[in-house]
Specification:
169 residues, alpha+beta, Aminopeptidase, seven-stranded mixed beta sheet, 6 helices
Length: 169
């Protein structure tokens, strides 16, 4: 599929919100997971911060913006905070392109690795990231900020089968 990646702009935010909501629908068959994610969308302030830092990217097809990736530095690594592709554009390699773009960005800025937090039981999450070269970290391998991030997720009820992953660059 023909696509291109660019920095997100403020006028993209409503579309990004719609993509995130549509992606949450994939969890509808898992009601407990679905409720947790619908209740905790990416804060608009985080999207704006990503726009300002130029670490929020969108992937466009000929039709429209089809997905996005938000990242930021965490303890010397580049952390992928959110990745969503509109299910209408799923399974076409767009998510992979966004992850590879983020890793190239990180490599170009001399980050040694990319990190992320995801679920282990959903095939399009941790198992998919493994195919892209990510590995699970143990609690002892987590940096202080990653531990804090996980603790906040646990407080929000997002502890079920979640794991921190890392890809060396």
């Amino acid at each position: 599929m023909e696509s291109s990646i660019r920095n997100a702009r403020i006028e993209d935010v409503p579309r990004l919100r719609a993509i995130e909501r549509a992606a949450c629908e994939l969890f509808r068959a898992m009601p407990d997971v679905y409720q947790r994610y619908v209740a905790h969308p990416t804060p608009e302030a985080s999207l704006t911060k990503g726009i300002d830092a130029e670490t929020l990217w969108v992937i466009e097809t000929a039709e429209r913006v089809a997905g996005f990736l938000l990242g930021f530095p965490v303890d010397g690594a580049f952390h992928i905070d959110e990745l969503d592709v509109d299910p209408l554009f799923g399974r076409r390699g767009l998510g992979t392109k966004l992850v590879e773009h983020a890793c190239e960005y990180a490599r170009g800025r001399r980050y040694p690795s990319c990190t992320l937090v995801t679920m282990t039981s959903v095939r399009w999450n941790a198992p998919w990231y493994r195919t892209l070269g990510f590995r699970e970290l143990t609690w002892d391998e987590l940096t202080p900020t990653l531990r804090t991030m996980r603790a906040k997720e646990i407080e929000r009820g997002l502890d079920r089968e979640r794991v921190v992953m890392l890809r060396e660059l």
